[in-house]
Amino acid sequence: MLSRSRLVVRTLPISRRVLPKTSGSIRYVSSNNKEVKDDSDSKFDSIDEFNKHRVQYNFGHNFNELEDLEPITNPDVKREVETKQQNSINLDDEMMQNVNTMLEQDPRLAGLKPGSAKYKEILHYLHEEFQKQQQKERKRWEFNERMRGVLLGAVAVVGILSAHQIFMNYEYLKNKIMANITYKGVDESKAKDMASPELNTKKASNLKDALSNELHESILETVQDSKQVPGLYVFGSHNSQKLPARIPFFDNMLLKDVYVSGDYLAAVNDAGKVYELYKGLQEPQLVNLPFKVQSIGASGPFLYFLTNKGQVNYIPRGDQKVTNFLPTSTRNWIGLLKQTKYATLSTQDPIKQMSTGKDHLTLLTTQGKILIVNSNPTNPENYGQFGPAYSPYDKSKAIPFNQPIDITLLNNEIVIRKDGTKFIQPRVFSSIAAGQHFNIASDQSGNIWTWGKNLSGQCGVELSETTELRPIPKVVLTKEDFKRICRSSLDANPNTEEFSVREVFAGDESSYILLNYADGRQKEQDIVLSFGNGINGQLGGNRYLHVCSKPQVMKSLLGLTEYDEVRGKSVNIGIKDLNVGNKHLFVTLDTVGEMKDVLAVGENEHGQFGNGKRVKSSKPLQIPKLIEPEDVENNRGSMNKLVKKINDIVTNRLSMLHDHKLPSGANVEQVIVASDDASAIFYRRK
Hints:
Distance between the termini: 110 Å
Helix content: 10-25%
Strand content: 25-35%
Protein name: Protein FMP25, mitochondrial
Keywords: Membrane, Transmembrane, Transmembrane helix
RCC repeats: 446-517
GO biological process, one term: mitochondrial respiratory chain complex III assembly
Organism: [Candida] subhashii
Number of helices: 12
Number of strands: 40
C-alpha cells in the first residue's frame, strides 16, 4: 500500500484590503471533491468573511491515498470491497451471536430472569471464563505450532544429513546392495549380533580342525622330546607352518648359527660346517669349505661367513645365479696356485661382528672400527648406507663391489688436549647393526650413531625433506637423551652415568637399543628403546605407527619381577637377548632357573610367532611350548591335548633351555632366531 502522499498546502494570502478583481473564472476541485466556483464578481468586505469562505487546496494530487482513487476509477472494485467488508461484519456479528447464544444456554443462567442483576453477574462470569478458555486454547495452539516447527526442522536436518551420507557413501551402499542381490542365498555367518557370544567366539573345535589340516602325518612323525633330542625347528614362510616343526636332518645336531628366509635356509653346525637347504633339494646339502665358520649372513646374491679367525668369506647362494663371481686363488704348501670356491673380503684387522642388510654388510673389527661393504654386483640401492664418500646425491662414483669401505670421519675423532692442541685418535665402537638400507652403531661412550635411509624415522631423526637420506653418520642419542626418555619409566630420578648400552639391533626399517640401568639403590633394570617403522607393531609400544623418529620405551618389559629362592627376595626380570627379524622380534627374558621365557612382537602374517595363528601384535606376548610326543601320542586324530596346550599359554608358555645337560653330557642352550618372515629354534653348545 502506498503511504499517504505529502500534500502541498497553500493558503491564499491574508490581507485586510479588498481582494483585486480578476478577469475570467478558475475551476478547482478540493480534496473533498467539491467543486468550488470563484466568481470574479465576488468580493469580501473583511478578513473574517474571507477566512469563513477560505478553502485549502491540494496541489499535485486531488486525493490522499490510492485507495481513495480506486473506487472512482473502478466501481467494480468498490463493490467488491464493500461486499468483503459487509461479509466480515456479518461473520463477526454471527460469531458474536453464536458466542452469546452459547453463553445464554449455559445451565447456570437457567431460572434467572434476563436483564436482572444476578443474570448480568453470572453472564459476566461466563464471559470471563470463555475468554480464559480462549486464551488457554490460544497458548496450546501456539505451543503445538512451535513443536510442529521444531519437528519439521529436525526432520529437515535429518534429511539433509542422510542425503549427505548417502552421497558420500554412494559407492559403498551401491556395492552392498548389489552384493546382496548378486550373492543372494550365501550364508555369511550364523552370528547375527554381538549379543550372542556363543556364536561370535571361536571354539576349540575351530583350532582343532585347523591343526588337523596343518599338522599332517609327515610333520607329526618328526616330533621329538625337546629336552632329550637337540635339533632345528623352523616355522613361518620357509615351510608355511604356524607351529615349530623339526627338520629331521638336524636331529641330534648342535648348531652355532641359522639363517632362514623364504625358501632358503643356511645353518652352521658345532664343528663350523655349513649346510644349505633351498627349493629343489630334498635335504640340506653340505657346503665344502676349508675353514670353520662362526656365524653366517645373507646379503644380495651371496652368503657371507665369519670364520673363527676373524675373516669374512663369501660364496654365491645355492638358490642364486651369479655370473661375475671371482673366487680367491691360494698357494698350497709347495707354492702352486689353487683355485678355491669362495672369495675373501680384504680387511686389515680381524672382524668380530657382522650384520647384513639388503645390499650391504656392516662389519666391526676387533679394534672397534666400522667397515661397510657393497654386496650387490650390479645395481645396489643407495640410500646413504655406504657413507659420505658414495653419497646417493652423487651418481658419478661407482660403489666398489665386495670391498670394505672405511668411513674416516666416523672411525676417527678430534681430541683437544689441556694445552689447546688437537690430535686425531681412533673412535671405538662396541656394537653394530644393519637394517635394510641403514646402519646403527654404539660407541664406548654410550653414543648412538645412525646413517642411511630415514623414511620411517629409523635413524632417530625427525623426518623432513632434508633428512630422508642421511649419508653422513651422526650422533642421534646420548646418555643425556637416555635419561630424558627413561625418566618417567623409572622409580628414581636417573643419573646419566648409570646408563650403559648393551647392544643395538635393526629390522628392515626399525631400530632397537638394549640399555642397562643400575643406580646401586634399586634393582638393576634392562630397558628396550625402539623407533622407526612400527606399522606391524614391531616397536612393541602397543601402537601401530608408520613413522616414529622419537625413541620409545617398550614399557611391557619394565617392572617384571619374580621371587628368587636362592637370594630369598623378589628380583627384576632382566632381558637375556633380543633377536630381530625384518618385521618381528623375539625377547628372551633372563628369568631365574634353567628355563628362559620368550615373548614375541610384530608381524605374524606367515605364522612366524609359532603360536598357531596369523595375528600380529603391537605388544610382547607369550607363545606356546614346543610340540612334545605326549601331545600327539594316541591322539593324532582329535588333537585334544595339543589344542588345550596351545590355548593355555599361561602354564604352557614357551621357554628356552639355558645351561641344560643333554643325555650325551653336553651343556646346551636353546636359541630362538627371527629372520625374514620366518623363525627358527636351535641348540647351541653352552
